[in-house]
Amino acid sequence: MKKIKLYSILLLIYSLSIVNMVFGESLIKKSYANMPALEFNELPYKYPVKYFTTSDNIKIAYIEKGTGPVIIMIHGLGSYLRFWDYQVDYFASKGYRVIALDLPGYGKSDKPSTYSYTTEAFGDTVVELIRGLNISDPIIFGHSMGGQTALSIAIRYPNLPKALVLVAPAGFEYFSLREKEWFKKSFTNASIFRFTTEENVWRAIRYDNFSRWRDELEWLVEYRVRLAKNKDFDKYGYANIKSIWGLADNDFVRMNLNKIIVPTLIIYGDEDKLIPNPFLHGGHTRDIMIYGEKNIKNAKRIELQGCGHTVQMDCPEEFNTEVYRYLTTR
Fold it and tell me: Which CATH number, 3.40.50.11030, 3.40.30.10, 3.40.50.1820, 2.60.120.260, labels domain 2-329?
């Protein structure tokens, strides 16, 4: 355990030194530190927000646009439904009813301390929303942690989705027992999210998640910096930490991929810096995604060149084109 922790610290120091050499001493391109706090319920969304209350009395925020076959969009760790901004309009214009939701603990949804924040729990919440809205045969999009959630749904509710679109998904990567323990020991205090420096926010969003950063995306940094000042941020931090534990300590999805019976697209960027885990494994994202492709019976894999982990925002035109082609020609 000590070796893993030391190795991870050394990797972190090395990676940060490389980033600083490339981008200069400061990664901050524009400071939002002096702007007022932003409450989660004040987050600007592009579409009217609706709410669905689950059987365990958790209020789930979602938006929808369009009519036709339903697409459900599930965001990843640390994000919320606006990470699908470039897809909602596009797929609605192509004749789909698009629904994007905030998972419990994220965005404008409730953040209860009693929720487990595992991908199975997330999956059950999404399924309850789908059934509560009387939706049949949804196509489920899932990014990163949302991809692992979509996989869990398809394994446990095999006849519910019509197809899966897994966007740089978690769930394929193997973690040893020691590595799982490292995650639990390293992510234990929600306050680490409150005291994250603005420079680290810029690094995590711009450099870890994107390869083709554009100034129009700076709202991602602004809102994250301002949200850290609000009274409910500890609840969000707790949800993140519990989610990280759940992602790492979950062999269920990886070991049951052969139970997925629906057509599945795996789409990701070749410059993904987060999969595989850069501190524990290293290597190329392609190898992880090939594992998923080989173990899901009806899977197709697409690698987008020059695109990072948040590929749907980093390379929206290529992403939308490839996904739409898959949905209409499979």
Answer: 3.40.50.1820
